[in-house]
TrEMBL record:
<keyword id="KW-0119">Carbohydrate metabolism</keyword>
<keyword id="KW-0413">Isomerase</keyword>
<dbReference type="GO" id="GO:0006012">
    <property type="term" value="P:galactose metabolic process"/>
</dbReference>
<dbReference type="Pfam" id="PF16363">
    <property type="entry name" value="GDP_Man_Dehyd"/>
</dbReference>
<protein>
    <recommendedName>
        <fullName>UDP-glucose 4-epimerase</fullName>
        <ecNumber>5.1.3.2</ecNumber>
    </recommendedName>
</protein>
<dbReference type="InterPro" id="IPR005886">
    <property type="entry name" value="UDP_G4E"/>
</dbReference>
<dbReference type="InterPro" id="IPR016040">
    <property type="entry name" value="NAD(P)-bd_dom"/>
</dbReference>
<dbReference type="GO" id="GO:0005829">
    <property type="term" value="C:cytosol"/>
</dbReference>
<dbReference type="InterPro" id="IPR036291">
    <property type="entry name" value="NAD(P)-bd_dom_sf"/>
</dbReference>
<dbReference type="GO" id="GO:0003978">
    <property type="term" value="F:UDP-glucose 4-epimerase activity"/>
</dbReference>
<feature type="domain" description="NAD(P)-binding">
    <location>
        <begin position="4"/>
        <end position="322"/>
    </location>
</feature>
<comment type="pathway">
    <text>Carbohydrate metabolism; galactose metabolism.</text>
</comment>
<comment type="subunit">
    <text>Homodimer.</text>
</comment>
<comment type="similarity">
    <text>Belongs to the NAD(P)-dependent epimerase/dehydratase family.</text>
</comment>
<keyword id="KW-0520">NAD</keyword>
Amino acid sequence: MSILVTGGAGYIGSHTVVELLNNDYEVVIVDDFSNSHPTVLDRIKELTGKDFTFYELNLLDKENLQNVFLENDIEAVIHFAGFKAVGESVSLPLEYYHNNVTGTIVLLEVMKEFNVKNIVFSSSATVYGMDNKAPFTEDMPTSATNPYGYTKVVIEHILEDLAVADNEWSPILLRYFNPIGAHESGRIGEDPNDIPNNLMPYITQVAVQKLEKLSIYGDDYDTPDGTGVRDYIHVVDLAKGHLKALDYSLNHTGAQAVNLGTGEGYSVLDVVHAFEKANDIKIPYEIVKRRPGDIAVGYADPTKAKDLLGWEAKHSLEDMCRTSWKWQKNNPQGYKE
Ligand code: UD1
């Protein structure tokens, strides 16, 4: 029996595949390399000493996806594949809805055809929208501010509707807070296309002198130092959360949304200072205007993950800063050498 991992060559996907292989799961990866690089597959093999099956494929290619299910005995799916750049989704809404939502529908149709009804979905804390107040709990109403966010909201609804229509489905909707950090080895990590949109990859590219200075988006929020507060979570903790969710899905039915966060909020300046301290590097920055769509404060109530899945985050912000830097320093061009 195998676990199908869509988007398994991506940042969170690759760290999750390492955990799966280390825990003796058989893994089948489907990835179209739209935001990842083939080198990551070699690195996963190097780190784990284990092999897996790989298909270069987009989920919209139904016929070839059916072949993946014909050729492998798939027991459950961990579904990461999707576009994820907020700004780009505003310019390319059709591409985002088609790739993310239609791609997921095709995947679910094929799963149904092969009677595979266990799925762990890569959702996001972005579904808490602008109106909820942190700490966010899973029962809060969901919304979004951009097409990327709406694709997560819509896919969550699709999975919940599926579990209502057929009580054999067991979708777990994992709402990630802000994943940063990298594998302890420094061999796999986050490798954004072009200029990073997110805070930590921007900081590490300033540290490696690919970018000149960090722009901090606003210091006039209602927070202790005026900069935005988020719940940063180490990607390896996040990856381990997927194994717990997979286990839960395989042993229960019905849909469950679960936050994966630490429950702790840090400001942008906290992260900059933690990075400087952990790695002994100065990060030049300037304060600029707020980024549209940003909230002031977002962090998880992680109680449900602990009660339902038996999972909690273990790594500190220092670990996150140290491993992010180790990855970037050892791979200044990411996977593109
Ligand atoms: C962002 C997305 C969110 C997505 C998540 C996944 C937006 C508005 N939100 O979350 O939908 O699910 O990434 O990766 O893009 N910051 C700076 N300078 C920078 C970059 C960020 O000051 O160059 C600040 C932001 O204003 C924010 C914090 O750092 O306060 C974290 O930003 P980021 O890493 O982009 O994550 P989110 O905005 O929380």
